[in-house]
Amino acid sequence: MKLxxxxxxxxxxRDTTYCPGCPHGIAHRLIAELLEEMDLVKKTVIVWPxxxxxxxxxxxxTDAVEAxxxxxxxxxxxxxxxxxxxxxxxxxxxxxxxxxxxxxxxHAAARGERISVVYINNGNYGxxxxxxxxxxxIGQVTTTTPYGRKPELNGFPMHVPEMFAALDGPxxxxxxxxxxxxxxxxxxxxxxxxxxxQKNNLGFSLVELISACPTNWKMTPxxxxxxxxxxxxxxxxxxxxxxxxxxx
Amino acid sequence: xxxxxxxKGAEAIAEAAIRAGCMAFFGYPITPxxxxxxxxxxxxxxxxxxxxxxxxxxxxxxMVYGAAxxxxxxxxxxxxxxxxxxxEGFSYIANSNVGCVVxxxxxxxxxxxxxxxxxxxxxxATKGGGHGDYHSIVLAPHTxxxxxxxxxxxxxxxxxxxxxxxxxxxxxxGQMMExxxxxxxxxxxxxxxxxxxxxxxxxRDHRNIITSLEILPEGLEKMNLALQAKYKKIKxxxxxxxxxxxxxxxxxxTAFGTVARIAKTVVEMARKDGIKLGLIRPITVWPFPExxxxxxxxxxxxxxxxxxxxxxxxxxxxxxVNGKKPVHYYGRLGGVVPTAEEIYGExxxxxxxx
Lengths: 248, 354
Ligand SMILES: Cc1ncc(C[n+]2csc(CCOP(=O)(O)OP(=O)(O)O)c2C)c(N)n1
Ligand code: SF4
Ligand SMILES: [Mg+2]
Known about the structure:
Chain A is an alpha/beta fold. Chain A is built from ten helices and nine strands. Chain A has a single domain, classed as 3-Layer(aba) Sandwich (Rossmann fold), CATH 3.40.50. In chain B, strands 3-2-4-5-7-6-13 form a seven-stranded mixed sheet, with helices on both faces. In chain B, strands 10-12-11-14-15 form a five-stranded mixed sheet, sandwiched between helices. In chain B, strands 1-8 form a two-stranded antiparallel ribbon. Chain A binds chain B through residues 41-45, 47-48, 54-55, 57, 61-68, 71, 74-83, 85-87, 103-104, 107, and chain B through 23-24, 26, 50, 52, 54-56, 58-60, 62-70, 72, 74, 88-89, 92, 96, 193, 198-203, 207-213.
């Protein structure tokens, strides 16, 4: 039998810690494929966040550090400045990056830090049981918005790529989604550009990946993917918000 | 040793760190130590090393953490409120077994307090500050020359034990000018990326992971026991103190940092009056020189602890003395520096009559 599709070598054999149907695994696979295709595996240090992907280093076989909640961009900055030859990825959730770590992320972007950020928007705090995140949609019920997110109480969802694209430091800023094969192929293209931005020393790069949290959304994986298309993407549209010359 | 140069303490700290092979600085401005980062900002680029002004102390310490994970000699300098913001990072650094140097030019607190010299962060520095069972090595120099000399040791200790080393100084030492002499430059060309560093796997046959996380209690207990074993080794091997006029002393002052310097004058005043007073000055306030203090309990009539706080090192002195002799205390708070006359006056009240 001919093998036509397999796990990238850079993905380990370990049992997953993610729930069935969780797209964190898709994001991991895309990163692993790109690191192999771009010959970056042996140069890479991934800064893992506090969130469901806290054990990310179990699954992607590169050098890795585990940051404090929200501090991944600062830690990535320290690694990259001290050792510029390393290829540095900061993998963060929406609570980690857009809430507790927004200052570190914005300033890393403003400085044009030569790091690549993979930013997983699943609309809630998966790890702690589904509380409101800065990305939670208006009306969305979470464990801390039992009556649905209300603008007068909780404000509005945060659009990180749009905000960051207004800065001069980033070389590449985009949003993709992990809900369908077409979108996943596109997400990989965007991530490739983000990694190229770092590889070519052009500046900061970030790709938001619209993800799902079937467990806390209380949906089947299929329903969760449908919800992304019907409810999330209209608020968080896919697109490239900043593309510097040289990332293609 | 080179020639003597007249330097402000805050700048001498930076120059000493640079000569000791510090390759990266991350920090956020705060009085009374702004001359330190400013000096780094001029010198580090000249030498092709890293200077970065962070957006906050929270970011600064996590940049230090990141750089430390690459096995790079790295420093941050700050003062009390900034150091408070860094505590989470200190705790992570401790359980990740990476090394760095942190200078705290202590100022008056709590809260925003003032910008005058104080010693009220002793507990925070020696007993943790961040969460969990951890320690940092804490050095408490009492002159600028000693600070400069200890800076080399600070980096060596940080490398040797893969631990955070705190230089506990105060605003007064930063602002004073003093002639200082620097030791030889450390040859940074000899630095090699350590085997455990997370810089990308390269030719290694295994990958490196640096984390303070271990989800299983039995596993985390093991990590904790390893930390405690390291601390025990440090306690056995790295205690430093100065005993000044203690050989025949009938009374012992205990003090660290700036107050210890003033206390030396107090000892001289007493000796002139024929009173046999000495000074025990811990240089490492963690590990605290317990055994050395305990030994003196058989010799002196009482201990007199003087600090610029409400009696923080006092607790360590009392633990060491363990009730054998009285331990008296005098201190000033909020950034007030006691004079030698004032301390001597308080001491004479305790001696009584004479
Ligand atoms: C300082 C601190 N505050 C709070 C927490 C608890 N905590 C752990 S993960 C998390 C939220 C993670 O959510 P997100 O970043 O969206 O990641 P997800 O799990 O959704 O992938 C929180 C609040 C913590 N670990 N540290
Ligand atoms: S809780 Fe949500 S984000 Fe976390 S692993 Fe489960 S599905 Fe994924
Ligand atoms: Mg989330």
